[in-house]
Amino acid sequence: MSVTGGKMAPSLTQEILSHLGLASKTAAWGTLGTLRTFLNFSVDKDAQRLLRAITGQGVDRSAIVDVLTNRSREQRQLISRNFQERTQQDLMKSLQAALSGNLERIVMALLQPTAQFDAQELRTALKASDSAVDVAIEILATRTPPQLQECLAVYKHNFQVEAVDDITSETSGILQDLLLALAKALQRAEGPSREETWVPVFTQRNPEHLIRVFDQYQRSTGQELEEAVQNRFHGDAQVALLGLASVIKNTPLYFADKLHQALQETEPNYQVLIRILISRCETDLLSIRAEFRKKFGKSLYSSLQDAVKGDCQSALLALCRAEDM
After folding, report:
1. Residues whose CB is less than 8 angstroms from the CB of residue 323 and which lie 6 or more positions away in sequence, other chains included
2. Each residue of 215-242: pLDDT tens digit?
3. Confidence at residue 181, expressed as pLDDT on a 0 to 100 scale
4. With pLDDT > 90 as the criterion, what percentage of the chain qualifies?
5. How many whole angstroms separate alpha carbon 135 and alpha carbon 137?
């Protein structure tokens, strides 16, 4: 399969994921975030508190964490604008200068607009071959179509290149086909091979239909679809298809598995922890916590307490919110 610029519509981003049903599945969990809009919100008080936190004797990290992990992303954007108007300084740059390490990374991610955060994560992943598949599937398959459309518009604006062009240059084979199909920029060649038929099946059906297809496949063949993927595909293509199947079957469980894996490494994978906890804390983190506890017999909160050290622990625990007994 190939993508040829001459066959693309004038505005590629307008076509991206306009009909993709995968991400809409997570929208149903919209009331199950751990971070809600703060009801007694005062943008002036919050901006003043953050200013005091970085201009007093020493940096008050607990105050910074308390404010930013208890306000919605929209409220955090209002605080940033107020801070700018009050001090003539950029809040992100001011906090970046005051903090370091993983806490700095968390705070920077919290202050970014959602589309900017996702665009940066996607760009970083595509330029780092060891994480391209995992992150690309996560973002392309779990964001709602409007979220992803905005992300890809920001991607083009910030990096002066379409995301699909980076996918084309940084990936190959069926993996490239799958990612491009998820971005609705796939141009099919005539006479697809048997392997290539898996791409449209996975990307051009809504999740409810695909779940029925998976069930029928198992009844007809006596084999789980995941087992068939493992037998037929290898390397990045296998990782991508298994990840996509997991998203379709149970999105919160998909994220629970990723969090557990990140916590099992010798050194916790902070990039994964930060990305998932921040991107899901206002949508479905309660559901993810429930799936984590059910599958691993231990709460996500306790797992974070045991594995995460340093200044960033309080921030990640605040996003997780509470223990699940």
Report:
1. 299, 301, 302
2. 776 777 777 778 877 888 888 888 888 8
3. 78
4. 53
5. 5
Least confident interval from 26-35, 198-207, 223-232, 235-244:
198-207
The backbone region for 113, taken as left when phi is positive above 0, alpha when psi lies in -120 to 50, beta otherwise, is beta
Identify the band that residue 208 occupies on the pLDDT scale cut at 50, 70 and 90.
low
Q: How many alpha carbons lie under 13 Å from residue 253 in its C-beta half-sphere?
A: 11
* pLDDT, tens digit, 9 for 90 and up, residues 109-155: 999 999 999 999 999 988 886 767 888 889 988 888 888 889 999 99
Residue with tokens 């008050």: 60
Amino acid at 260: H
HEC sequence for the chain: CCCCHHHCCCCHHHHCCCCCCCCHHHHCCCCCCCCCCCCCCCHHHHHHHHHHHHHCCCCCHHHHHHHHCCCCHHHHHHHHHHHHHHHCCCHHHHHHHHCCHHHHHHHHHHHCCHHHHHHHHHHHHHHCCCCHHHHHHHHHHHCCHHHHHHHHHHHHHHHCCCHHHHHHHHCCHHHHHHHHHHCCCCCCCCCCCCCCCHHHHHHCCCHHHHHHHHHHHHHHHCCCHHHHHHHHCCHHHHHHHHHHHHHHHCHHHHHHHHHHHHHHCCCCCHHHHHHHHHHHCCCCHHHHHHHHHHHHCCCHHHHHHHHCCCCHHHHHHHHHCCCCC
C-alpha closest to that of 150 among 323, 4, 14, 305: 14
pLDDT at 253 over 50: yes
pLDDT the model gives residue 207: 60
Two tokens, residue 178: 């799958």
Residue 101, pLDDT above cutoff 90: yes
